[in-house]
Design brief:
Helix content is about 15%, strand content about 40%. By secondary structure, it is α+β, with helices and mostly antiparallel strands. It has one domain (about 5-145): Thiol Ester Dehydrase, Chain A (Roll). It has a six-stranded antiparallel β-sheet, covered by helices on one side. The relative contact order is 0.21.
């Protein structure tokens, strides 16, 4: 199991940048098996301006994206930078949203590999807030050349 990793390390693995980098810290990585990561939800997030004025709620699609990014980190973290590929989100199955995610929340992203092939993966993903399930889905992805 790997040690905790910060945002600088995450940016060395993923091509995403502000405002669409949605993983702030990696707590655990078990290569080929599992990742646990965090997304700190700040009142300053740009999407809160319009979703919803006076009642800010993190859009479900961005919760899914944060889970997919954590899965991407799991796939890419041990590949040499010059050999890294892009990870494309290809499918979402059984997505369920259980509670709103609001400013001040911290999403704990728990991603488990359900299937892993050379260039494709399927993950069982959960996003929790204070131990309560906020969202879950089965996310599929494919890796392609940059």
């Amino acid at each position: 199991m790997s040690h905790e990793r910060d945002a600088r390390w995450i940016m060395s693995v993923l091509p995403h940048r502000y405002p669409l980098l949605l993983v702030d810290r990696v707590l655990e990585i078990e290569p080929g098996r599992r990742i646990v990561a965090l997304k700190n939800v700040s009142v300053n997030e740009e999407f809160f301006v319009g979703h919803f004025p006076g009642h800010p709620v993190m859009p479900g699609v961005l919760i899914l994206e944060s889970m997919a990014q954590a899965g991407g980190i799991l796939l890419l973290h041990d590949i040499a930078p010059e050999e890294r590929r892009l990870v494309y989100f290809t499918a979402v199955e059984r997505a369920r949203f259980r509670r709103p995610v609001v400013p001040g929340d911290q999403l704990r992203l728990e991603i488990d590999v359900a299937r892993l092939r050379d260039n494709a993966a399927k993950f069982a993903a959960k996003a929790l807030v204070n131990g309560q399930l906020a969202a879950e889905a089965v996310i599929s992805s494919v890796m392609v050349s940059r």
